[in-house]
C-alpha cells in the first residue's frame, strides 16, 4: 500500500496520524504543511519516506522511524520547528539532502546503526549540532566520535545511558460496521473527543464529537462511495463507504 504524493498536503485539521500497517511507501509531501500535526506513528514494514513528506509540520515534537525503513527522501522533515527527539533504526541505508534541515528544537537523536552512515553535512543544515545529544550503540561510540558530521554533535552517549523517543498513547478504537452503508459507529474514544473524516485526497468531509461514553456516530448515506480516513487524537482508521 502506498500513500500517494500530496495525499494530505496542507490538511490543517489533522493533529494525529497513525499510518496503518501494510503501507510501505509514503509519497512526496504526503503530509507536508500540516501545521497542527502533533503526533505520527509509522508502521513496521515502511520502506521509504518521500521527499518533503513532513515538510513544515511545525507542531510535530518527536518521531520514531520504524525498523525496516531503508530510505529517507530529501527534506523529509525540513522545518519541523518543534521536533525535539528522533529515533533512526538500524535499517536505514540512505539519507537525502536536508532531511532535518531547520529542525532547530532538536535536542536528542538516537541512531541505532552500528556503523556511522556516510552522510552529507546538509542533512542537518541550519541546525546547531553542538546543542544536540547523540545516542548510539555502546560498541559504536568511538566510531561516531571520529566520523565526519556525527562527531560534531555536542555529546555522544551510548543508548544505554538513557534517551528514548516516547510513542504517543494509542486508543483501542473500533469502527462498526465497516464497510458502512448508512452509518458507522466509532467506539473506544475519549469522552467528547473530536473525530474527523477525510477523503483520500486529504479533504475534510465531516467532523463530530463522541458522547460522554466515548462513542461517535457518523452518518454516511450522503457521502460518495469509496475509502476514507477517520482521524483523531491517538487513532487513525480506514472507513469504506458502500
Brief digest:
The protein folds into two domains: 2-161, Leucine-rich repeat, LRR (right-handed beta-alpha superhelix) (Alpha-Beta Horseshoe); 174-241, Immunoglobulin-like (Sandwich), CATH 2.60.40.10. The chain is elongated, with a radius of gyration of 19 Å.
General description of the model:
- The protein is an all-beta fold.
- It has two domains: 2-161, Alpha-Beta Horseshoe (Leucine-rich repeat, LRR (right-handed beta-alpha superhelix)), CATH 3.80.10.10; 174-241, Immunoglobulin-like.
- 2% of the residues lie in helices and 30% in strands.
- The chain has one helix at residues 141-146, and strands at 2-3, 16-18, 25-26, 39-41, 48-49, 62-64, 71-72, 85-88, 94-95, 108-111, 133-136, 155-158, 174-176, 183-187, 194-199, 204-209, 216-219, 226-232, 235-241.
- The strands form five sheets. It has a five-stranded parallel sheet, with no helix packed on it. A five-stranded parallel sheet has the order 6-8-10-11-12.
- Strand 18 and strand 19 (235-241) form a beta hairpin.
Amino acid at each position: 500500500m502506498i500513500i500517494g504524493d500530496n495525499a494530505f498536503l496542507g490538511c490543517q485539521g489533522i493533529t494525529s496520524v497513525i499510518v496503518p500497517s501494510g503501507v510501505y511507501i509514503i509519497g512526496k509531501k504526503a503530509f507536508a504543511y500540516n501545521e497542527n500535526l502533533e503526533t505520527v506513528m509509522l508502521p513496521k514494514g515502511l520502506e521509504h519516506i518521500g521527499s518533503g513528506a513532513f515538510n513544515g509540520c511545525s507542531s510535530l515534537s518527536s518521531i520514531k522511524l520504524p525498523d525496516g525503513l531503508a530510505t529517507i527522501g530529501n527534506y523529509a522533515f525540513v522545518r519541523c520547528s518543534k521536533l525535539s527527539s528522533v529515533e533512526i533504526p538500524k535499517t536505514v541505508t540512505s539519507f537525502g539532502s536536508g532531511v532535518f534541515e531547520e529542525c532547530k528544537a532538536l535536542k536528542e537523536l538516537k541512531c541505532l546503526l552500528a556503523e556511522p552512515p556516510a552522510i552529507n553535512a546538509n542533512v542537518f543544515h541550519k541546525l546547531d549540532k553542538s546543542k544536540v545529544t547523540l545516542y548510539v550503540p555502546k560498541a559504536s561510540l568511538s566510531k561516531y566520535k571520529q566520523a565526519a558530521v556525527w562527531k560534531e554533535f555536542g555529546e555522544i552517549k551510548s543508548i544505554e545511558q538513557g534517551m528514548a523517543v516516547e510513542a504517543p498513547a494509542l486508543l483501542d478504537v473500533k469502527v462498526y460496521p465497516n464497510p458502512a452503508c448508512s452509518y458507522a459507529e466509532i467506539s473506544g474514544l475519549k469522552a467528547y473527543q473530536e473525530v474527523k473524516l477525510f477523503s483520500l485526497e486529504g479533504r475534510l468531509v465531516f467532523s463530530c464529537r463522541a458522547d460522554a461514553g466515548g462513542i461517535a456516530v457518523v452518518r454516511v448515506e450522503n457521502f460518495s462511495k469509496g475509502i476514507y480516513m477517520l482521524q483523531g487524537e491517538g487513532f487513525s482508521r480506514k472507513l469504506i463507504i458502500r
